[in-house]
């Protein structure tokens, strides 16, 4: 199974250009020659604008074009804005990235974190559950309250759904005896906090978010304990809209890819919660599409 899922692809920021704006927001925010950045809200939306300032400056300096940041309200909104031509480059999740590529002919994945080809999710549980970390899937959680992250999340919903079905032979709705929950705001951060507080007993979460929150003292690992780690799969990527070359000139997308992959500015890379970026291509995420179709999250 591990061999199958390691080809899967990526989860979530978006860079957009209001170059040929098809929506009024793009024109208002960036002007006709601006590269506008947005991010799917897989973590705290309130931190995004501040976190993206160094990336905005880096890309503006490297590319010689104005760059601005714009929030997207949720995962679906980021994809829709990309589809409408408001967003022209996106740090998407695997599922949202594939949705964007399928929606726009010529859309192209150009970069991902070096950790993203071998990503994973954690299943975490409140300490009162009595569960301990194990290599075996924790079938005991079937009678506990459980939450995914965002409905559009690769690491917080799609792949956990896939692994639940692989391990139990049941869909999450069939496996859990109580209604499955989702985090409507805050993504993985909200999942971690819900489990830590005990408002939900078990959750599925992006491992990078969990590890970062623990390292920064924002999550008590003794209260929200890792109980199972999924097999590896590919995740997050930066996907660009083909209109970029039309707006900024032939070869601009390649120049943008080079600027991202060669970036050594740790403050800029913090926007993605990554230490570095590597090249990516559409084919890297074919497995995500296959899994999404298999579990009924994409047609």
Helix and strand element order = HEHEHEHEHEEEHHHEHEEHHHEH
The count of helical stretches stands at: 13
Please give the CATH architecture of the largest domain.
3-Layer(aba) Sandwich
| Percent of residues in β-strands | 15-25%
Oligomeric state of shown chains: single chain
Strand elements, count: 11
Major sheet, described briefly?
Answer: 7 strands, mixed
Superfamily (CATH H level) name of the largest domain: Periplasmic binding protein-like II
Show unreliable segments: 1-32
Q: Which word captures the global form?
A: globular
- Fraction of residues in helix: 25-40%
- Intertermini distance: 23 Å
What structural class should be given to the helix and strand makeup? alpha+beta
Instruction: Give the domain tally.
Output: 2
Mean pLDDT across all amino acids: 87
CATH topology descriptor of the largest domain: D-Maltodextrin-Binding Protein, domain 2
Query: Major sheet: order of its strands?
Result: 3-2-1-4-10-5-11
CATH C-level label of the largest domain: Alpha Beta
Radius of gyration: 19 Å
Question: Helices, strands, pairings?
Answer:
Blueprint: H1 2-5, E1 11-17, H2 24-30, E2 35-39, H3 48-63, E3 67-69, H4 75-83, E4 89-93, H5 94-103, E5 108-113, E6 121-126, E7 146-147, H6 154-168, H7 172-175, H8 187-197, E8 202-206, H9 207-215, E9 224-229, E10 237-240, H10 243-248, H11 252-261, H12 266-269, E11 277-279, H13 286-294
Helix pairs in contact: 4-5, 5-13, 6-13
Task: Write a structural description.
- This protein is an alpha+beta fold.
- It has 13 helices and 11 strands.
- The protein has 2 domains: 2-116 and 234-294, 3-Layer(aba) Sandwich (D-Maltodextrin-Binding Protein, domain 2), CATH 3.40.190.10; 120-229, D-Maltodextrin-Binding Protein, domain 2, CATH 3.40.190.
- It is 38% helix and 17% strand.
- The strands form 2 sheets. It has a 7-stranded mixed beta sheet, with helices on both faces. A 4-stranded mixed beta sheet has the order 7-8-6-9.
- Helix 3 links the parallel strand 2 (35-39) and strand 3 (67-69).
């Amino acid at each position: 199974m591990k061999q199958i899922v390691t080809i899967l692809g990526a989860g979530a920021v978006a860079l957009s250009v209001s170059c040929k704006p098809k929506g009024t927001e793009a024109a208002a925010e960036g002007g006709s020659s601006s590269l506008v950045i947005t991010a799917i809200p897989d973590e705290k939306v309130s931190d995004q604008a501040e976190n993206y300032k160094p990336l905005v400056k880096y890309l503006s300096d490297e590319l010689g074009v104005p760059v601005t940041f714009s929030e997207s309200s949720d995962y679906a909104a980021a994809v829709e804005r990309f589809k409408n031509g408001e967003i022209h480059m996106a740090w998407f999740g695997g599922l949202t990235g594939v949705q964007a590529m399928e929606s726009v002919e010529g859309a192209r994945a150009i970069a991902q974190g070096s950790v993203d080809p071998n990503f994973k999710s954690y299943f975490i549980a409140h300490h009162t559950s009595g569960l301990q970390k194990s290599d075996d899937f924790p079938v005991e959680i079937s009678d506990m309250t459980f939450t995914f992250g965002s409905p559009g999340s690769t690491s917080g919903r799609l792949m956990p759904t896939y692994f639940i079905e692989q391990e139990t032979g049941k869909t999450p709705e069939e496996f859990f005896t109580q209604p499955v929950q989702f985090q409507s705001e805050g993504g993985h951060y909200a999942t971690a906090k819900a489990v830590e507080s005990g408002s939900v007993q078990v959750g599925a979460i992006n491992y990078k978010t969990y590890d970062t929150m623990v390292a920064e003292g924002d999550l008590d690992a003794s209260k929200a304990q890792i109980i199972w780690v999924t097999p590896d799969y590919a995740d997050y990527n930066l996907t660009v809209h083909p209109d970029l070359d039309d707006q900024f000139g032939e070869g601009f997308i390649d120049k943008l890819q080079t600027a991202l992959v060669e970036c050594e500015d740790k403050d800029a890379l913090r926007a993605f919660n990554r230490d570095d970026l590597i090249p990516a291509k559409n084919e890297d995420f074919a497995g995500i599409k296959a899994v999404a179709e298999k579990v009924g999250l994409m047609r």
